[in-house]
Design brief:
Layout: H1 2-13, H2 15-29
Helix pairs in contact: 1-2
Length: 30
């Protein structure tokens, strides 16, 4: 999924900021 890839890329770019958002996104999607 493109959306998942975008999250992964963003997590690498902005680790500290997106780590929290990333976790929440996985909770919402699952």
């Amino acid at each position: 999924m493109i959306f998942i890839k975008m999250i992964v890329i963003n997590r690498y770019k902005y680790k500290n900021l997106y780590a929290f958002i990333d976790a929440n996104m996985y909770k919402i999607m699952s």
